[in-house]
Every structure is written in C-alpha cells, then in structure tokens.
C-alpha cells in the first residue's frame, strides 16, 4: 500500500486547511468503469489490463455497489481455476466506502487505517459515483498545496471558523453544530480545535488527546444522533469539550461504554465506523469524563483536559 506521509497532529496549518476544505468528490475519479456480477473474472481482467487499472467496482444496473474485483481477486481466480466464473461469485463483498461529501482528511485516514488501494465513493443515496486511489489524493494535494503556499505568502493566517465568544470569567467558548450524516462539516470542529491549541503553544501530547476525544464525540453525533453542538470551553490551563445532542439518547450507558459495543447500522459500518471503541477511547484519553443520557432525550458528554505548554524551545 502507498502510505500517505501526512500526520494530522503535526502538519502545518495550510495542510490541515486543505484536508478539511477539499472533499472526496474533488479528488475522486469519475465517471468510472464498472462491471456487472454476471461478467466473468476473465472479462474483468481484460478490462483492467486494457485500461491500466487495478480494481473495478461491481454494481447492479441502478448503480448500487455490490462488491469490488481487485488484482488480488484476479490472481486468486487464476490460481484456483475460476477465471471463467461470473464475478458475482468471487468478488470481494466487504467493501469500505467513502461518502462524496466527506473531507479529504477522512480519505487520508482511511488509507492509513485500512490496507486497501482504493475506496469506492457513494453519494447520499448510496449510489456509486466514483473511486479514490492514493495517487488521486496525492496529486490533488500537491496542486492544492502549491496554491495554498502562494496564498500564505500574500495573506496572514485565517480566522477560526467556529462561533467564538468570551465567557464571564474570561474563558473562551467555541461552538460548532453537527448534523446527522452531514460529512460536509463533520470533523471540522476537531480540526479547528487542534489548530487553535497548536497556535496557543499547547503540548502535542495534550492536543493529540483532545483531538481524539473531540473527533470521536463529533462523529458519534453525526452517525448516532439527530444532531447537536460541539462546545469547547477554554481557560488558561483547561479545556472542556461538551458534546450535546438532540437525541435519541442512549438507553444503557454501561453497555455503550463497553469496548466493542455498537449499534452501528450496516451503512455506518461500511463508512468505517462502528467498532464500538469511540466512547471507551474518549474516556481513556480524557483527564475527566462524564456522560449523561436519557432515552428519548439527548446525550451530553463532557471530556476535560489540563492544558500544558509545549516544552521550551520546541515548536508544538
Ligand atoms: N450521541 C449519541 N447518541 C446516541 N447514541 C450514541 C451516541 N454516542 C454513542 N451512542 C451509542 O453508544 C454506542 C457506542 O459508541 P462508541 O462511540 O463507543 O462506538 P461506535 O460509535 O458504535 O463505534 P466507533 O466509535 O468505534 O466507530 C453506539 O454504537 C451508539 O449505540
Ligand atoms: Mg463512535
């Protein structure tokens, strides 16, 4: 697999901006070649060879994704003598997909988390609209980075995008809304907060933990709730994340806090979530953690952190 050398924790602000602004649909290849389940593995191999590609999604006539045939599947078919069988019998059916409105940061982390060379891209109706390979991402990033470098030379750093206010005791409060399955804005809150901590010279070991907790809580609102608000209260030496949503609430908090417990649907799992690790991980990385929820009502999770400055002489 081609590993993309981008670490979100210590990337320059310009890279983070690009990763959040660009969407999967901006980098994906489309329209794409697809195969039908009745096509033979040999026919697919020939199409792959002719078009110099290493994987083809298999769809029905209504553009629903059924599976994918990769070079590995072709090699297995040749080895096992089923190269003349229909693809429907031998394609890979457990496919991790991206949604076209997700930001590029999702894309990059998927290449790090899953060892696949390509991800099919679905639209909001779950229809196949494109495919993303690591080289699509790299080439788009290079062009965008170049453009960004030119901009940086001309203007000063951009303002944080969250709605910010200053509370009564001088603390800073920043809020970001979340909406169900709106990946257009998912992840934005976490990225902005990491940028802010970085600019404030906070130690990376702290901002990394804040980033993990924030991201998990934010994504939980996007995939499990009717939407809500990610609220960050920052004082000179503390940061509290308050993730508050509009329901449906969590019926059994103890189970929800258990590693591996998840109610994620197949749609959510296909998007790479649903390991049941978000809440336990959030608790593990936070200095203080509380969760309240009432079935039918909303859920409020609070994760607190003690902020400490990066060691002298080290740029965070
Ligand atoms: N904001 C929320 N509203 C309603 N239910 C929630 C919310 N957050 C979590 N849950 C419930 O708690 C379960 C466990 O959450 P957790 O974040 O640990 O795992 P997950 O989101 O299912 O998977 P992962 O986070 O590993 O992708 C969820 O499957 C869901 O049932
Ligand atoms: Mg989760």
How would you sum up this structure, described in words?
The protein has helices at residues 13-21, 24-27, 41-51, 71-80, 87-90, 104-113, 134-154, 188-199, 204-224, 253-256, 266-270, 278-285, and strands at 55-59, 65-70, 98-99, 118-122, 128-133, 163-166, 172-178, 228-234, 238-245, 288-293, 299-306. With 316 residues, the protein is of the alpha+beta class. It folds into two domains: 13-139, CBS-domain, CATH 3.10.580; 163-306, Heat Shock Protein 90 (2-Layer Sandwich), CATH 3.30.565.10. Strand 8 (228-234) and strand 9 form a beta hairpin. The two termini are 30 Å apart. It binds adenosine-5'-triphosphate and magnesium ion. Adenosine-5'-triphosphate binds at residues 216, 220-221, 224-225, 245, 250, 256, 261-264, 273-280, 299.
Number of helices: 12
Strand order of the largest sheet: 6-7-8-9-11-10
Unreliable parts: 1-5, 156-160
Instruction: Give the class-level CATH name of the largest domain.
Output: Alpha Beta
Structural class: alpha+beta
